[in-house]
Predict the 3D structure of the following.
Amino acid sequence: MKLKLLLLLLVTSLGYSQNSIPTFESATGSEFAVVSAPTDQSAAGANATWTFNVTYDNQNTSDEYSTTDAAISNYPGSTAVINTNAGTTQVSKIFLEKSGAVISFTGAESNGVNLVYTDKGEIGSFPLAYAYNPNADDIAGSFSFSGNNGTFTGTMSRSVDAQGTLNVNISGLTGENFTGGVTRLNLVQDLELYMIPDGLPFPIKVADLEQTSYYYYKDNGDLVFRTTRIDISSDFFDNETFETAESLTTSTLGLNDQTLSQVEFSILPNPVKEELNINVKAEVESISIVDLSGRQVLNVKTNQRKLAVDQLQSGLYIANIATDKGVFSQKFVKQ
């Protein structure tokens, strides 16, 4: 029985990277159709099913990932930005810090709301696997909205809360429906906005802002559907709700998939007692180890191909190897 269980774990490890989210951003060249927001995204868990009957909004957006955009300097700690545009019109900007495999929010511009994070919001160490669900991360910074400026504090909850089958049926757009397996990332930011009114020496809370975002990723890493809803509740200025939904129509990720699939990758021995040996035809940049709850138990920036794991407790873990050719993941058993 013990041998049978061990073989099952090793077989499972071979397919693991197909069921994780390799990185937060969409592939370079991704284009999306703007659609009506789905009415129900409540399904969650290991075998979720979503059916989105949505309507094409006669608009399209495209993503551009950049590490050289001049706006990055306005958001301390940022190393990259994702620009989403509709033609020549800017829709949103999300500023990120990438530190090894760890990705964090450092700023955002969307629907007239600008956020600059002085206490950044860590999304996680990619790739992320179901059921990643760490404690909420404290965030803080400054904001501007409708001519108002102030500060914010709050929390960001982040989880890979579901895997399953997504069905997208788009009315008004031929040939762009989607059915397939996906893994979902859920990000919720709960913020309190503060300002110093004229005549007062101290800040007061002027609004609550909640942003809920869902990102649905195909097994190959394509970001195939995403939604964002922002609710602003205030006694000082108008309440506002902004909601967007986009469905992938074009991606170049398939080219990268072919490159990654040609890179030999393995970790040995498995099971392991003291030291993992990493076999990959790429330059290693960092190694992180997470347990099955998604908790990171080890993270090392290194170009070495060996990692001591004798300090880990016995059990099942996931090794995430960040390289210059992508991030590779595999489960292993620590004896």
